[in-house]
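S1.2 Input.
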Amino acid sequence: MANVGRRPGPTRTREDILQAARIQFAERGYRATTLRSIAGAANVHPALLHHYFRTKQDLYSHALTIPANPWEVLDRLLERTPRNRLPEALVRHFVSTWRDPQSGPRLRAQARQTFGDAPAPSLAKSHMETLVFPRIATATGLPESNVAAAISQLLGVVLMDSLLELRQLAALTEDELVAVLTPAIRQTLRHSKPDQDPRLMPAIGRL
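S1.3 Output.
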């Protein structure tokens, strides 16, 4: 059984918890991972997880090493944006976040780590498949495949713009880049799966 309380002397407890969390979130996904299982893998008492991280969501956010809580950002965007303006809002959010002088460098560093660190791609994959895509799909009534295609397009462009700094994209202002991207994202989110009748999915027609 893991000991109660902090370890004596210099400690890497917080880092050990984060490492165990990254591995378990990557292997099991968010929902199947428990704080108790992370505590066991890190060999600490579960109470220490609450000491260093307020909630499971907070721990997940830190495990991703992203500059903002993903639930808060996504929920705020979905709750405050009229459905007919969601494509443009998604595009503007991605572009402005990656170009922001504060969040941009951290996201670029995370992107480099994602493609160079073994557990990172699995964690990013789990984050998208089990949280981001279902959350947007549920809120909009869209198929997850459409949401995945739209987000993939956005990520591809912002990576080319921010990470590779392609001059054709870097030369555009934020508003110009949003204007270029929005029609494609709107079209992707409008289409239903081939075996679905668009008349049965009214949310798509409003985008």
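S1.4 Remarks. The domain at 13-64 is CATH 1.10.10.60 (Arc Repressor Mutant, subunit A).
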